[in-house]
Amino acid sequence: MSEHGCYSPSFKKPCDILRMRRKRARSEGVPAGPRNSFEAVRPFSPGPLLKSQARAGGVKRRNPFANLENTYNSPKKRAVSCTEDISECGKSFAVLCEQGNSGEQNTSFGALFNELVSKVSEKQSENQNKKPSFSEEDSLFEDDLFDDEKATPILKSVKDPETCGAPPPEVCRVYPADWSLKTRLLFKSPQSFSWADHLKAQEQALGLNLHCRAEYTTLPQNIQEPRTCTELRCGFQQCLQYWQHPYLPWLSLFPRIGAERKFAGKNTPWAMDAAVQQSLMSEWSVSLTSLYSLLKSKLCPYFYICSYQFTVLFRAAGLSGAKGMTALLSPTTRGLREAMKADGIEFSLPLLEEKRKSKERCSSQLSNNSQQTDENELSSAGTSQHSDKEEEENDDEDDGGLSWLQDMGLQDKIKKPDAISIKMRKEHNEVRLDHRPESVVLVEGLNTFTLINFLINCKSLVAGAGPQAGLPPTLLAPTAFRGATMQMLKARSVNMKTQVRTGYQDMCSLEVTGPIMPHALHALTQLITPAQKGDFSVLLYTHEPSAVLNVPVPKPPETEQQNIGMQDLNRCGLQQSTLQQLTEPATLGKSALRQLHMREYSYSWSSK
Questions:
Q1: Between vectors from CA 471 to CA 338 and to CA 339, what angle results, nearest 5°?
Q2: Does residue 82 contact residue 95 with C-beta atoms inside 8 Å?
Q3: How confident is the model over 558-577, as pLDDT tens digits?
Q4: What pTM value is reported for the model?
Q5: 375-396 and 350-370 helices cross at what angle (nearest 10)?
Q6: What's the rounded Cα separation, in Å, for the pair 475 and 485?
Q7: What DSSP line would sit under 96-127, residue for residue?
Q8: 47-71 burial: b if 16+ Cβ within 10 Å, else e
Q9: Where are the domains of the chain?
Q10: Kind of pairing, strands 326-330 and 485-488?
């Protein structure tokens, strides 16, 4: 290669390079071996080799990215320090527990406990005041112990519960009464509902007997095995019973509003036979009269009349905070309200009155605040009030507010509206309420008896044409009455899977269908609470035309409220806890319960 002139004097063969590396290694004291062996590996931060016995001397190249903070705060060293300090605290707590269990004096135990708490607080205060340095490893480790999240359980165990200051969670044992009719309930719970399936003949008979006698058994507080609890299964059978008139096995007579499709194609032999229709109505009138007599005697708490156009709820005196008997009818039309007025029935529109009172309250507040505002605000408020008064005056005028045409000399050129159009314009607000929740009618006291007579003689109560022609309204009640048939809600349990974040979770469900009245909803929730160990949720499917039946009734004077609570409703056939809920004033307004949740025996609900 020297002859060709391209040979470099510094060129070395590979074997020479390996020989020089071995010689350099021997001079530095590193044993011969491959450069990438595990013994020669160093950490990035300053310090000895991972295996210090591999080498006694030598200087390690400093890592330019290393600093003091990530040196002593490395994850490995932090874990070692935390485990050491935690073990020390654990030993001290073990000593305290041994002394407390050995039966020594309370003073020595409290002294050791206070000493430990003082040491913990002193170390924490000292570590907060000190600045971290590489030579203060112990203090740094202690600071990590108290600042790290892993040490939080230690501090919680040392703290006194009274010094935490956290308010206890609010526990709600009851939920508001819902007077609307439900078509379906869907209970969900991690616990199984198998106890509600395949009731024995003896359990079914006992449940029917308890319902007819209006007797209720007391459930055990802790139900370990619901499937073997006879009281639970008999009580469930009892909760599903209700009374209905009329009853036709081939027709579902609830709901009636908007149920034309369910009746289409069904056999209706009374549709073209006037004698059959008259016989059905006479039997229906007897049943309705019997129900009102039971209601007046406080032997029946409430009942429903479900027509193809509206729903009526009659309640006994003392329920929903009312002084006497009450009746709510919804939805109504202007023609129905006029017919009720013609028969001398006094009624009110509670939602409209509440709206008017809120407007008056707002206007009074506005007038009080207007005295402290600028002139512009006063003028704007005055013009708004003036415009409202003008609209009311225009509505009340019989001539339609056309007197200004006479002043201009145009009364002959412009045709005045006739009396019918003027009347329609005046009654525009009333017509606008038809078939809306605001059209709910409240009847109180002795006017309820007049309303019963009106419903018996009202020809528009029964459809004159269509699939429901000639069929009387459905009567629903929680207790027996003349001509009634005992029926049972349908219930079935299903195991399903619900989707969660990590996948699917096993969930058990219980479905109850039929005309579910307020007492049945409360009785079912009271029954399921101990069976499911206070952990379940309910989806409530409301018959929407009946949701407005939750409107509050006018409150009686304070002197009469005590007498209302003492009225004799114990013989109405309801359980005491259910009766106590139904006697409370209604608070849901136009809405109804949509969801119920129970967690740790505490209720939460949604009504929107």
A1: 5
A2: no
A3: 655 555 544 678 889 999 99
A4: 0.66
A5: 150
A6: 10
A7: HHHHHHTT--HHHHHHHHHHHHHHHHHHHHHH
A8: eebeeeeebeeeeeeeeeeeeeeeb
A9: 14-66, 70-163, 182-240+489-551+586-606, 245-349+437-482, 351-430
A10: unpaired
